Amino acid sequence: MSYIANTLTNLLHQTAFANLTFGNVIMIAVACVFLYLAIVHDFEPLLLVPIAFGMLLVNIYPDIIAAPTATSNGGLLWYFYELDQWSILPSLIFMGVGAMTDFGPLIANPASFLLGAAAQFGIFAAYFGAIAMGFNGKAAAAISIIGGADGPTSIFLCSKLGQTDLMGPIAVAAYSYMSLVPIIQPPIMKLFTTKKDRQIKMEQLRPVSKLERILFPIVVTIVVCMILPTTAPLVGLLMLGNLFRECGVVRQLQETASNAMMYIVVILLGTSVGATTSAEAFLNVTTLKIVALGLIAFMFGTAAGVWFGQLMKLATHGKVNPLIGSAGVSAVPMAARVSQKVGAADDPTNFLLMHAMGPNVAGVIGTAVAAGVFMAVFGI
């Protein structure tokens, strides 16, 4: 009988139930909520499903992200996470985004760069807010990039500034807000626009030539990377992916970058980011501050884009719909779709999607530039 009792006792101690804390239970519940939002409400499922599942795994089996020791090879997701810290996965994500994205609307309407730049206001507002909350300069910079609603850039800057202890909360906050764009943005957009504003129909964009499409990624790479060389891993690979798309002679590379490679990288990055959210690392005051600052930054960025859209409306005598300014937060292409959806709610015949894609793409570049500015400020 004692043998049976000892065997059952050993088995019990080997189960997750024996080591489960109240914090683990909370994080498992949060993971289930994220899975619900992704699967039932279709909130960026490609991002939220792997992140939520990584969160689920680490709170059941913490050793899945344990670092190697003299007696252990380390957990599976630790090796995925190292690719985040080395900035490999964020850079490859940018290549995939470039290969999938049509930069034509931005080329056809260069003024969209201004809307993308305006939406970066949330980043710098969050930076000073983080300083006021007691974070040091580098930590504040890493947190503030959440305002760009750009998960890969958040991870990239966090790694470059040596703030890897904050990477989990920052990455989860960034990706969560990217997923929740359809919930967070519309009330802000409606608050700062009238129904008449939202019904403004914009003129059709001019056709963009093949030569323009090919030259654009080359010129942007030269200009941006000459000014801020540290942005090369992000801006350079974003533009390389787009050159694959537009040059027409490397179709296989474009298809690989935008499909197979992109999805593999999303799986690795999403699960490893989710696995950084153990209860011990995530349930603390610092994390709550980061989540709050990220939300404030995202809201300020959305509002700033709409405000600048209002200025452009006045400057063009009513030819610009201010709703497209909210797309400058760079969550491609979700933010542009939200601009379209909010505009169509007041006028179903109003098609803003292509106009909103200009600021949306500009926002991706703008967030990478903002990261480069922070790295230059801190001498990275």
Secondary-structure blueprint:
Elements: H1 2-14, H2 22-40, H3 45-60, H4 76-85, H5 88-100, H6 104-108, H7 112-118, H8 121-132, H9 137-144, H10 151-160, H11 167-179, H12 181-191, H13 195-198, H14 210-227, H15 232-247, H16 251-258, H17 260-274, H18 279-282, H19 285-315, H20 334-346, H21 353-377
Mean pLDDT: 88
Largest sheet: none
* Element pattern in H and E: HHHHHHHHHHHHHHHHHHHHH
Give helix % range.
Answer: over 70%
- The assigned structural class equals mainly alpha
- Rounded radius of gyration (Å): 22 Å
Specify the number of helices.
21
Shape: globular
Q: Tell me the β content.
A: under 5%
Uncertain segments of ≥5 residues (pLDDT<50)?
none
Distance between the termini: 65 Å
Q: Tally of extended strands? A: 0
Compact summary:
It contains 21 helices and no strands.
Quickly list its features:
380 residues; mainly alpha; 21 helices; 0% strand
